[in-house]
Design a protein that fits this description.
With 118 residues, this protein is α+β, with helices and mostly antiparallel strands. The protein has one domain. The protein is built from four helices and five strands, in the order αββαβααββ. The protein has a five-stranded antiparallel β-sheet, covered by helices on one side. Strand 1 and strand 2 form a beta hairpin. The longest helix is centred in the middle third of the chain and has 11 residues. The radius of gyration is 16 Å and the shape is globular. The protein starts with a helix and ends in an 8-residue tail after the last strand. 8% of the residues are buried.
């Protein structure tokens, strides 16, 4: 039980610390993510090694992408279904840094204000 307390204490984030970001790979057509990485380079190396197709996205730890987008002004709820459980569960974080990959090779990278074409 003591080990769990040590892990919990190590994971606690103070007010002046930002939680780490992670890179999550979601394969085309997959219902779930299949890889989580602490940095983009490791994610891209794994994707290349397995010649994967999909999207790898940078996520901050500790909040959901819908809440982050609303809080940061990237999305403004404007329809009745916005913010419903179904909408939040399917929300796509297009404002977050992400990269489309095909057969293990990088395609389009979006981040730092870049947005995918409409």
């Amino acid at each position: 039980m003591r080990d769990n307390a040590v892990v919990a204490e190590a994971a606690r984030v103070t007010d002046d610390q930002q939680p780490p970001n992670v890179w999550i790979f979601h394969g085309d057509g997959a219902p779930f993510a299949s890889g989580v990485f602490s940095n983009r380079q490791d994610a891209m190396a794994w994707i290349a090694r397995h010649r994967l197709t999909g999207v790898v996205t940078e996520y901050p730890v500790g909040d959901g992408c819908y809440d982050i987008a609303v809080r940061d002004g990237h999305f403004r709820p404007s329809r009745p279904h916005h913010g419903t459980p179904h909408h939040v569960a399917l929300f796509s974080p297009s404002n977050m840094s992400h990269c489309h990959v095909r057969d293990g090779r990088e395609g389009h990278h979006y981040g730092d204000g870049d947005q995918p074409p409409p």
